[in-house]
Amino acid sequence: MGAEYLRQFKPFVKEAFQQILRVGKYLCCIHVTNTYLCTFTYALGPSMLPTINLTGTLLLAERVSTLLGKAGPGDVVLVRSPENPRKFITKRIIAKEGDTVTYLVNPKEGDQENSLIVPKGHIWIEGDNKYNSSDSRNFGSVPYGVLQGKLFWKVEYEWKCYSTEVELDPSEVMHHEYGLVNKKWKESLIFYSKVN
C-alpha cells in the first residue's frame, strides 16, 4: 500500500521539481543580467540637478562599459558611495587618472580653488549641482572599481492624484489605475503618471 501511495504522488513531485528548475533558471538569468549587463536604479535628491529630477528619476545603467574600463569624463555613472558602501550615488565623471583637476573647495562660501592630479586607478566625480553635492570635493578621488554602471536611459514621471470628478485630458494620461489604498477610496481616486 505504501508503494502505491508513493506512485500516486510521483507526477506531482516531478511537476514541482520542473517548476523549481524553471524558477531557478529565471532567477539566474535576472542575476546575470543585473550583475553584468544592466540594472535599474532610482535616484533622487538635489546633487544632480538639472540632469536628474529632484523628486526622483528611474535610471537604467549598463555595466559593460565600466567592466571594460570605457567610462570616462562627461559620463553620468552609478557609484558605490565611499562614505557608505551600502549606498549607491549618481555622479558625473569629471576627470580620470593622470588628469589635473581644479575645483572650488566650498562653492557656497567663496571661490577658493584647489588643484590636484587624479591618482592612477582613480576618477574624480562631481554632482552637476555644485552647491548641493557631496562628491570628490568632499571625499577625494575614488577608485575606478567602485563604478557600478554608466547611465544611459532615464524615465522622469510625475505622480498626481485627482478625484474622479475632475476631467482629465486623455492625451496627458500615460497610464492609470485605480488606487488600492482601501475599499472606500478605490472608486474615488485615479493615480496616473505623465512622462515629461
Automatic annotation (TrEMBL):
GO terms for biological process: protein processing involved in protein targeting to mitochondrion; signal peptide processing. It comes from Lithospermum erythrorhizon. It comes from the Eukaryota. The keyword Hydrolase applies. SUPFAM superfamilies: LexA/Signal peptidase (SSF51306). Catalyzes the removal of transit peptides required for the targeting of proteins from the mitochondrial matrix, across the inner membrane, into the inter-membrane space. GO terms for molecular function: serine-type endopeptidase activity. Signal peptide: none annotated. PROSITE patterns: SPASE_I_3. The active site is at S47, K91. Keywords: Hydrolase, Membrane, Mitochondrion, Mitochondrion inner membrane, Protease. The keyword Magnesium does not apply. It is found in: Mitochondrion inner membrane. Residues 22-103, 113-152 form the Peptidase S26 domain. Belongs to the peptidase S26 family. IMP1 subfamily. PANTHER family: MITOCHONDRIAL INNER MEMBRANE PROTEASE SUBUNIT 1-LIKE (PTHR12383:SF30), PROTEASE FAMILY S26 MITOCHONDRIAL INNER MEMBRANE PROTEASE-RELATED (PTHR12383). Heterodimer of 2 subunits, IMP1A/B and IMP12. Its main location: mitochondrion. InterPro entries: LexA/Signal_pep-like_sf (IPR036286), Mito_IMP1_subunit (IPR052064), Pept_S26A_signal_pept_1 (IPR000223), Pept_S26A_signal_pept_1_CS (IPR019758), Peptidase_S26 (IPR019533). This is Protease. One of its GO terms (cellular component) is mitochondrial inner membrane peptidase complex.
